[in-house]
Write a structure and sequence with these properties.
The chain is α+β, with helices and mostly antiparallel strands. It is built from 3 helices and 3 strands, in the order E-H-E-H-E-H. The chain has a domain of 53 residues. The radius of gyration is 15 Å and the shape is globular.
Length: 88
């Protein structure tokens, strides 16, 4: 069986928004790879096209990832209660 290819599911403007979306997807069990052009990453550029961070997932998880991102955009996660994993 061939390995999954990485596919683009979203683009974020800057590293922080990309990391937030990565965390959201990973919390749903989706593997994520963030890709930003080398110079932009090295110099922390977050303006214009150089500040764009690509959010990629394995092709087998792309449909699920797009669904989760659509839910996020619709605001479906706004009323969620988070459980502290450290509480006893």
């Amino acid at each position: 069986m061939p390995e999954d290819e990485w596919v683009l599911v979203e683009k974020a403007q800057g590293q922080l928004p990309a990391e937030i979306l990565k965390g959201l997807l990973e919390a749903q069990g989706i593997t994520v790879w963030l890709n930003q052009e080398g110079a932009a990453h090295a110099y922390a550029i977050e303006i214009g096209s150089l500040g764009t961070v690509e959010i990629l997932v394995p092709s087998s998880m792309a449909e699920q990832a797009r669904y989760v991102l659509d839910e996020y955009v619709r605001g479906d996660f706004e009323d969620m209660e988070f459980v502290d994993g450290d509480s006893g």
